[in-house]
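Handout, section B. The chain below has 235 residues.
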Amino acid sequence: MWDTLLFVVLPYVCLAIFVVGHVWRYRNDQFGWTTRTSQVLEKRWLAWGSPLFHFGALFAILGHAAGLLIPTSWTRALGISDHVYHVVAVAAGTVAGIVLCAGLVILLLRRFYVSDRIRVVTTPMDRVLYALLTVEIGVGMWQTVAINVFGSGYEYRGTVSVWFRQLFVLQPDPSLITAAPAVYGWHAVLACLLLAIWPFTRLVHVWSVPVAYLARPYVVYRQRSAAPGRGKVRA
């Protein structure tokens, strides 16, 4: 029962909240659709923590996408052995995880210890988000380092990845993910919960990529001191 609830029902419920929550947020809180940046309150720590966290998160997400979505048969067809894939994936995942953790630690220290002004403007949802991110990243690093670097290793592509792809065809088999070490299940559950709170946090800014800037016309500047009819144009 619990297996079905956690690895069949929960993913779809969280996905529904993710979609409906974004629609609700966009229709009712467009002015809050921002990062709620606190850069004006403190810049030095942010200049280090933000790039580390964002680049680490980007590469971690790309690594997860590759491991979960690309079947083992595809990499074998390309001539990549399971051992080579495992070594490269663990090495890249460890580096990305270290960068991500470093950025997160800096951002946490900045928000809760370095600046009283930032701590004052931290919302309850910010605290929930940071707590969930910290636990999720910690669990992810545990399965990477403890199991795959210093442990005996685990090939999750035959179990966890198959379960994940089955979600898209509405036929998830929870026995696949429960066959993996428990930490993989925890990681999946935490990811689902993170998906559910996403629309109600500052994470919505991920979808606000300024694509329109690529096609907008040039802005023309003219000197005020120029004589009438002879304005100088600056690009």
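Note. Confidence is low (pLDDT under 50) at residues 231-235. Compare this with the example in section A.
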